[in-house]
Amino acid sequence: MHFYAQIVIKKARQTWSIIKLVIVYWLLSLADPVWAKTVVLGAEEWYPYISPTLEDKGFTGRIIKEAFALSKIDVEFRIMPWARALKMTKEGTIDGTFLWYKTPEREPFFFFSQEPVANITVVFFHLKKFDFTWETLDDLKKYRIGATIGYHISDQFDEYDKAGKINVHRIKSDTQILKMMIRGRLDLFPQDILVGYGQIYQAFPRHIAMLFTNNTKPLTSRPAYLLLTKQDPANQALVKLFDKGLKELKDSGQFDAYFDELISGSSLP
User: Fold this and answer.
1) Using CA atoms, how far apart are residues 4 and 39, in angstroms rounded to an integer?
2) CB 266 within 8 A of CB 67
């Protein structure tokens, strides 16, 4: 009986070892293969949403980093021009880019996050001494508007610009536009409200920055998303993990807390 007992125990141990091996393989099969990778994202500096000078690369950088971190995914940010970031993402040279509008032209090439990472609200900036109101773009014909070369403002604004229905001066940089407004050479500057004030307080000392204000009527207000390249099919699962993390941040109130911190001025100059 002792001999047979040893055989039974030996077989039981072998069976248990096989069971444990099967469990390990099963658990590994459930683990998403993208968990161990570092996601490389490109974007142009757009203070305070994304900037190498800010902690966690700015508000949007912080949100993206923490949403991915909930799935044990690291993020590497690379600062580059918007056009290059989109092109490199489309080609699969980098994993993704962010703060982009969802358009039919982009959807064949990118996986979009389900939820936006920010809402971009564009308003007209002007000097406080400049009396300005508007209702439609037709009201803007008499004004000199500064806009950065290559930047999309809104579909209707760009249509009016191309048709010559409004007087738009395309300038190399936002800072140059602001300086031209101070000199009286431009009247209006369409920009996201947070970015606009961030640029103003970066470009000028406080006593000059306080000369600017904004019209309260939005030119446009649209959600902006994270984009991942479709060159890597695994990114479909990756964007779902991001969506899960972003939802957790929003449901917990952390997203709103970070945004409140941003607009309270602690992340602005």
Assistant:
1) 56
2) no
What is the spatial distance between Cα 106 and Cα 83, in angstroms, rounded to a whole number? 13
pLDDT of 202 above 50: yes
Which amino acid, residue 102?
Answer: K
Are the C-beta atoms of residues 42 and 76 closer than 8 Å to each other? Answer: no
Residues 6+ apart with CB under 8 A from 101: 120, 152, 222, 223, 224, 225
Alpha helices of the chain — where are they, by DSSP H? 2-30, 59-69, 82-91, 155-163, 174-182, 193-203, 206-209, 235-251, 254-263
Written as six digits, the tokens of 120 are 């971009």
What are the structural domains, with CATH classification, of the chain? 35-119+222-263 (3.40.190.10), 121-220 (3.40.190.10)
Which contacts of 57-65 are long-range, i.e. CB under 8 A and separated by 24 or more positions?
Answer: 58/267, 59/118, 59/258, 59/259, 59/262, 59/267, 60/98, 60/99, 60/117, 60/118, 62/258, 63/117, 63/118, 63/246, 63/249, 63/255, 63/258, 64/98, 64/117, 64/226, 64/242
Tell me the C-alpha to C-alpha distance, in Å, between residue 213 and each of 128, 165, 230: 6, 25, 41
pLDDT bracket for residue 264 (50, 70, 90): confident
Query: How far apart are the C-alpha atoms of 4 and 8, rounded to whole Å?
Result: 6
Phi, psi of 64 (to 5 degrees): -65, -45
Closest CA to 178 of 155, 200, 210: 200
Dump pLDDT digits (tens) for 111-138: 999 999 999 999 999 999 999 999 999 9
Q: Are the C-beta atoms of 34 and 241 separated by less than 8 Å? A: yes
Rounded to an integer, what distance in angstroms lies between the CA atom of residue 142 and that of residue 133?
12
